[in-house]
């Protein structure tokens, strides 16, 4: 495994970080009161079932962020190996194996035990990408798949800079600053190095890079970040800042800034 398995506690619920493949993350979301659980992007079913048994929870739900094989490719095996009631498979794309609930509208609310899950449609990386937001009292988390990474964002495989601007600035940036961000891949170090390339004098990026380099030496995952931190360190969350627009020579046009930044990252 590329990272240690660790658990983050959030009052009414907890999130277990499950590494998979060479740099993917799956997440086991557990409602503490009912012991009902959901798994985000279960590409490695054996790892998922092992975690479910060790935590002694009932897996009822699959939260699929998008159809790419390294996120949804384990759905079929997970469903076939399930000995309990049928799993509810949630997603925003009919290319997702085993889909039972289609999220075709932004902002749909679902339940996991006592937890409310708000489904945020963020098309761009894929046309059917969905992020999942849980907010219980002072505790909030969002599973962002390949839309928002720690220090970066996903490639615009099936969408446009306008769509990524909508996803990052109009949707995810509006969540409370203390919202924990659980993304789809361990890309933090390369993303933060790109951030320093764009903003070499950004002390927040330098401090976070040093912190994460220490964590990674000890196999500790970089996640979670927070929405507030991303606004300080992530150039793609900072496209409305003049300091970023000067680099891309797109003053006053944050959408063009988004496109130029992504092109720059792709070509480095």
UniProtKB/TrEMBL annotation:
Task: Write down the required cofactor(s).
Answer: Zn(2+)
Q: Which family does it belong to?
A: Belongs to the metallo-beta-lactamase superfamily. Glyoxalase II family.
Q: According to the UniProt entry, what is the EC number of this protein?
A: 3.1.2.6
Protein name, UniProt field: hydroxyacylglutathione hydrolase
Metallo-beta-lactamase domain residues: 23-185
**Example GO biological process:** RNA 3'-end processing
Q: Pathway it acts in? A: Secondary metabolite metabolism; methylglyoxal degradation; (R)-lactate from methylglyoxal: step 2/2
Q: Which organism is it from?
A: Aphis craccivora (Cowpea aphid)
- Alphabetical keyword list: Hydrolase, Metal-binding, Zinc
PANTHER family from the UniProt entry:
BETA LACTAMASE DOMAIN (PTHR11935), TENZING NORGAY, ISOFORM C (PTHR11935:SF94)
Q: What class of enzyme is it?
A: hydrolase
């Amino acid at each position: 495994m590329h990272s240690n398995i660790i658990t983050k506690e959030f009052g009414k619920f907890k999130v277990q970080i499950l590494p998979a493949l060479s740099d993917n993350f799956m997440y086991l979301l557990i409602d503490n009161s009912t012991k009902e659980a959901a798994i985000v992007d279960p590409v490695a079913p054996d790892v998922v079932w092992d975690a479910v048994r060790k935590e002694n929870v009932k897996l009822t739900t699959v939260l699929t962020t998008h159809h790419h094989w390294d996120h949804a490719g384990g759905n079929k095996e997970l469903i076939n190996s399930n000995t309990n009631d049928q799993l509810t498979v949630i997603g925003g794309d009919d290319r997702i194996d085993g889909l039972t609930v289609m999220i075709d509208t932004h902002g749909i609310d679902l339940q996991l035990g006592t937890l409310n899950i708000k489904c945020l449609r963020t098309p761009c990386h894929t046309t059917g990408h969905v992020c999942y937001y849980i907010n219980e009292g002072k505790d909030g988390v969002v599973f962002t798949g390949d839309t928002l990474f720690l220090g970066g964002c996903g490639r615009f495989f099936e969408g446009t800079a306008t769509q990524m601007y909508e996803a990052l600035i109009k949707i995810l940036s509006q969540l409370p600053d203390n919202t924990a961000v659980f993304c789809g891949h361990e890309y933090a170090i390369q993303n933060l190095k790109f951030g320093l390339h764009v903003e070499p004098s950004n002390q927040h990026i330098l401090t976070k890079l040093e912190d994460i380099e220490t964590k990674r030496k000890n196999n500790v995952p970089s996640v979670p970040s927070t929405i507030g931190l991303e606004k300080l360190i992530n150039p793609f969350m900072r496209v409305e800042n003049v300091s970023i627009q000067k680099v891309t020579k797109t003053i006053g046009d944050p959408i063009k800034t988004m496109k130029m930044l992504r092109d720059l990252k792709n070509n480095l």
